[in-house]
Write a structure and sequence with these properties.
Strand content: 5-15%
CATH architecture of the largest domain: Up-down Bundle
Number of strands: 22
Number of domains: 4
Helix content: 40-55%
Shape: elongated
Strand order of the largest sheet: 16-17-18-19-22
CATH class of the largest domain: Mainly Alpha
Largest sheet: 5 strands, antiparallel
Length: 853
């Protein structure tokens, strides 16, 4: 830590000063007792503890205290008495204004100067003259040119000669150097008197970087010895005093000691150089001040003593006895003072204050940030630009200074915002197009692949989610933050729940197709959907009611800010995010499981099942990654907006493709009555060959169909079904690869899909029917009226199992699909189906179809 000099061992000074004070005491009748510290040097920590104890004790036993000029701001509140109104205004105004800045806090003066000191340039005038330089340098560039020339000539005979020595060790002395360097470039050292950052702009930081980088370059070039990185006052003055340096930066008081001791060198003193000659003479203010104990019972007398000790008579003694600079301008041309300091030198000094008054009791920490960071730059351990910026941010954060500037939220006119708006418009247009198409084809069989209400739910959820990226544009308000939660939460919940409901519908049917009819499925699905929506509404209501998302000030990389959305409690916000993610994860996971489970019923469902699985997988991965990045990372408003937009776009498009485009694709001239699988095109009329015979349906056939195109459905049946003749038309088709017979009653009623045919009888002329024996099947019916639905429910309830025809196959398609053993039991079922077509079968022989093709 920086040592605090005591004058205990300077007997001549103590004697002269005591004589001066006693003489004043005799004149005024005010006794003054002086206590001199017993130690030669205290550290900053020692003095800080000392003053802290004094402040805590609140003792009136002492009246005045002399201290380093950086301490009054730290102890103004607990220890010192404001001097405004206590000292005569004239006794304050006689000092140089810059000498009062460091002891003024919030407009109140807490101490007055006893003496001052400042940095100065000591130089070997003999070496300069030897190489043709008869004036000291006024700029650092001029000094660099001198050193390059002088060292090149001198090191041949004096290899230990260095160019410039100063205090570069990481301590308070380096902070003083930095203040002078920056002042020489017309910069203020990080903070001004109002605690405002002075190096917070890129141009200012670039200029400061160039200033500090110069001295790093000098070390690399050998103009400054690397040993200076560890040098303080003692090492510096010893190096110069031994003739081992051309230039030295030191406190100007050293001139008095060099002249008093008779240094065996030809040397001189000058103001420090600057970046420009007009900026030369920067000198960090050092010195001591005197303040009054706020608990003193002798304030009036103490004020008189302070006025005397800070006056011209006392300051003249400090200058002539110790070589310390006066702070009263009238002494700059005093004959006694000029025997120590040239008047021109005193008047040319540009006093530079360290930011003590603007940092108060935090100055030690601020100074440590400065000298530590700069020492690392000089040593080559840190990048100059990054370190200057880092020092600036450390100071701002430590003092709680807002250095981030105005919020940098995206605006509607920004190019990124325009791209997002265009993407959202495209998504909305796609959703509306599909909605219109769905409305126009709502009565077609193709639309029955997925019930309209589920598709509407998917579209509504997609529309809500698509609008969410718009809430990331501009500066959010409380309402926008709340709308963002609603759009994302309900949007993805509607979407995922309707997707899950569609897959759940298929599962309900195929899991027990002849036991569960449309009314049962309809009721279960809506109960499930309402339950999910109620839970989501409760979650959002809890979030918005307890600790809603609101505009928050977000700092990015500790360099700039934007206004985002966040809850006051981070833990609560995390819990609500987790709850939302868990809700969507459950729904998406259910979609994936159901899609895979339903796809395994038959290879015919593979295409659509894969589409559904991929859509759900995309939602899970993309949306999950986006939520994590948006909630956990401070990535700024533009990346945040683009990430949210990309995630929403991928999710919405994948869902629309899998659940509307793929599922609704159908040939223009055909209809489908299934919810899954591949639609088959018409082949040949069932009665195209009047002279043929029925033959065996197990023979390979391309497929025959009558009246319409039929989709394929798969499930398992454990019931025998015997149906009476129908009034509507019937279509029959046989597919080779799966051996399926599909029978359809038009325009509504029953669709029966039979798997693995065992036998098919010849059509009966009397009953216009034939009998088919199969091992598995699925049944679904739809009606336009409730009575028709109840009729079909009754007919299904009257079917009876055919348990004696059961067989279990340990190999084949079921095992290949990986189904459990219990589901591989296949029931042989005999079904008689009446086939009334446009005209009754009067003669079987004449109109019997040839099923061989």
């Amino acid at each position: 830590m920086q040592p605090v000099v005591s004058h205990r061992d300077n007997a001549a000074f103590i004697s002269n000063f005591t004589t001066l004070v006693n003489a004043w005491s005799d004149r005024t009748g005010i006794p003054v007792n002086i206590w001199w510290p017993e130690r030669v040097a205290y550290t900053n920590n020692d003095l800080q503890k000392f003053l802290t104890i004094l402040g805590q004790q609140q003792l009136p036993s002492w009246d005045l205290i002399g201290m380093d000029l950086i301490w009054p701001p730290a102890f103004a509140r607990p220890l010192l008495l404001p001097l405004n109104g206590v000292l005569p205004p004239a006794s304050i105004a006689r000092h140089v204004p810059s000498s009062l800045e460091s002891v003024t806090v919030n407009g109140s003066l807490y101490a007055v100067p006893l003496y001052s000191d400042g940095g100065a340039l000591f130089y070997r005038s003999d070496l300069l003259a030897k190489y043709g330089y008869f004036q000291p340098p006024k700029t650092w560039d001029h000094m660099e040119a001198m050193l390059t020339t002088i060292l090149a000539g001198e090191r041949a005979t004096n290899p230990t000669l260095t160019g410039f020595v100063t205090q570069l060790s990481p301590y308070e002395g380096l902070t003083c150097n930095v203040a002078e360097w920056l002042a020489g470039a017309n910069l203020t050292m990080f903070l001004d008197m109002s605690s405002k950052l002075t190096l917070d702009s890129a141009p200012m930081q670039a200029q400061a970087t160039a200033v500090v980088a110069r001295f790093r370059r000098w070390i690399q070039q050998g103009l400054i010895s690397p040993v200076s990185l560890f040098a303080r006052e003692l090492e510096t003055r010893n190096t110069f005093g031994e003739g081992k340096a051309v230039f030295m930066r030191y406190w100007s008081r050293q001139e008095f000691f060099y002249r008093s001791t008779g240094l065996n060198l030809t040397w001189d003193i000058a103001p420090l150089p600057g970046e420009l000659s007009d900026l030369a003479g920067a000198a960090t203010l050092g010195g001591a001040v005197i303040g009054i104990n706020k608990f003193s019972r002798n304030v009036t007398r103490a004020a008189l003593v302070a006025e005397f000790l800070s006056g011209p008579e006392s300051q003249r003694v400090f200058t002539t006895a110790l070589g310390l600079r006066p702070t009263i301008p009238e002494l700059f041309q005093d004959p006694a003072v000029n025997r120590v300091y040239d008047a021109a030198f005193l008047q040319s000094a540009r006093i530079v204050n360290r930011p003590a008054s603007s940092t108060r009791d935090q100055y030690l920490a601020i100074s440590q940030f400065i000298y530590t960071g700069v020492n690392l730059i000089l040593g080559g351990f840190a990048d100059a630009a990054a370190s200057i910026a880092s020092i600036n941010l450390l100071i701002a954060d430590w003092l709680g200074i807002d250095h981030f500037g105005a919020p940098r939220n995206t605006q509607w006119s920004d190019s990124a915002s325009i791209v997002v708006v265009a993407i959202v418009a495209f998504l909305v247009a796609a959703i509306l197009f599909l909605a219109i198409r769905l409305f126009c084809h709502r009565d077609t069989a193709a639309a029955r692949r997925i019930p309209t209400e589920f598709l509407v739910g998917v579209l509504v959820g997609s529309l809500l989610g698509s609008a969410a990226p718009l809430t990331f544009i501009g500066t959010p308000t409380l309402q926008i933050c709340e709308v963002r939660v609603v759009l994302i939460g309900f949007g993805f919940t509607f979407m995922a729940s309707c997707m899950a409901a569609q897959d759940f519908r298929i599962y309900l049917i195929v899991s027990s197709p002849l036991r569960r009819v449309a009314a049962d499925v309809h009721r279960i699905l809506w109960q499930s959907l309402v339950a999910v929506w109620v839970v989501e509404g409760a979650l959002i209501g809890l979030w918005l009611g307890v600790d809603p998302l609101a505009p928050v000030d977000v700092k990015v990389d500790n360099a700039w800010r934007y206004i985002g959305c966040g809850s006051d409690g981070l833990a609560f916000q995390t819990v609500m995010y987790a709850a939302q993610c868990l809700m969507c994860s459950i729904l998406v996971g259910l979609c994936v499981w159901l899609a895979v489970r339903n796809r395994n019923v038959s290879p015919k469902a593979k295409t659509s099942g894969e589409a559904l699985s991929k859509a759900a997988y995309l939602i899970f991965v993309v949306a999950g990654a986006a939520v994590i990045l948006l909630s956990a990372l401070q990535i700024g408003p533009v990346p945040q907006m683009l990430l949210a937009t990309a995630a929403v776009t991928l999710v919405v498009l994948s869902v629309l493709w899998a659940y509307l485009v793929v599922q609704q694709r159908v040939a223009p001239d055909a209809e489908s009555s299934g919810w899954m699988g591949t639609t088959m095109s018409p082949s040949a009329a069932i009665f195209s060959d009047a002279s043929g015979s029925t033959g065996n349906l197990l023979e390979p056939l391309v497929g025959v169909v009558h009246e319409s195109t039929l989709a394929v459905r798969f499930a398992r049946s454990e019931r025998a079904l015997q149906l009476a003749p129908w009034d509507a038309g019937v279509a029959v088709v046989h597919v080779v690869d799966a051996r399926i017979l599909v029978v359809r009653s038009q325009p509504h009623g029953l669709v029966l899909s039979l798997r693995k045919l065992v036998a098919v009888t010849e059509p009966s002329a009397a009953t216009s029917s034939f009998t088919v024996t199969f091992t598995a099947g699925v049944l679904e019916m739809w009606t336009r009226t409730e009575p028709e639905l109840k009729e079909w429910h009754t007919r299904l309830a009257q079917t009876v199992p055919v348990g004696d025809q059961s067989t279990v196959h340990e190999s084949g398609g079921c095992r290949a699909q990986g189904l459990p053993v219990a589901l591989r039991a296949e029931m042989a079922v005999s079904v008689q189906i009446a086939t009334r077509i446009a005209a009754p079968l009067s003669t079987v022989g004449a109109q019997a179809p040839s099923l061989h093709g």
